[in-house]
Amino acid sequence: MTAHTSADNSDGDTLALDVDFSVTWDVPVPAELASFAADVTVDQDIQLQWSVASQTNNLGWEVYRSIDNDVFDMVSDLIAGDGTSDTFGSFDFLDQDLPMTNVVYYYLRQIDLNGTATRSSTIEVALAPTAVLERALPLNTTLAQNFPNPFNPETTIQFDLAGETTVSLRVYDMTGQVVRTLVSANRSAGTYTELWNGTNEQGVKVGSGVYFYELKAGAFSSKKKMTLLQ
Questions:
Q1: pLDDT band with cut points at 50, 70 and 90 for residue 27
Q2: How many independent structural domains does the chain possess?
Q3: Residue 48's beta-bridge partner residues?
Q4: Reported pTM
Q5: Distance in angstroms (rounded) separating the CA atoms of residues 156 and 145
Q6: What is the C-alpha separation between 198 and 196, in angstroms, rounded?
Q7: How many angstroms separate the CA atoms of 225 and 210, rounded?
């Protein structure tokens, strides 16, 4: 940046001067990670832990997982941050619905209060072969009854996949209109659990009443009824 000014010399003449200078603004980092690590628990789940030295306008984090370090799926709800804080903070997430694989990959998506998102570096977690074997593959594709039922404010839906296939799990109202899509992705064989918190696609709470949820997995299709109480 150049500033223009003037000064008088010893003869009384006015001289024009150009002065070059630079200005640097320090932009605070919303939540710079001090650490990000994972451990395999005795139950063969994965415990993620991360820490930050400080936070500025930090809404929170979302956890993403992949089995090939290419396609990632979000596996957590928003994990709330502390807004603005100059104290050290620690956070964690327990991933219990692991796919049948020897290696999984994770990254964190940090979200500011203004909606800006930042992706962390990716970490790799190796599972012992015994851990994979202990997660026995289901023999059949099935859809379980949600629990609890009736429910308020949320309920859990579990399903088994006997093989890798394209999966959709949707919630419908009594008129047959889609209320919420819980899953629309390719999934490997295994047991999965999805949570419905009684909201529609826009995140708005729906009213009390009877709803249906339907699982489609390849040629398999099953629909069950559940009741939301407010």
A1: very low
A2: 2
A3: 38, 93
A4: 0.47
A5: 9
A6: 6
A7: 7
In whole angstroms, give the CA distance from residue 143 to residue 139. 13
Q: Which amino acid is at 9?
A: N
206 contacts: CB under 8 Å, gap ≥ 6: 173, 179, 198, 199, 200, 228
**Across 100-114, average pLDDT:** 91
CA-based torsion, 86, 49, 123, 73: positive or negative: negative
- End-to-end CA separation in angstroms for the chain: 62
* Range scoring the smallest mean pLDDT among 85-99, 134-148, 180-194, 205-219: 134-148
β-bridge partners, 50: 36, 91
Domain that holds residue 86: 33-134
- Mean pLDDT lowest among 86-90, 142-146, 197-201: 86-90
pLDDT tens for 123-174 read 999 886 554 445 567 889 999 999 999 999 999 999 999 999 999 999 999 9
The answer to whether residues 81 and 60 touch, using CB atoms and an 8 Å cutoff, is yes
Q: Amino acid letter at 51?
A: S
- CATH number, domain at 59? 2.60.40.10
The structure tokens listed for 88 are: 């050290």
DSSP 3-state assignment of 131? helix
Query: Rounded to an integer, what distance in angstroms lies between the CA atom of residue 109 and that of residue 58?
Result: 11
**57 belongs to a structural domain:** yes
117 and 146 co-located in one domain: no
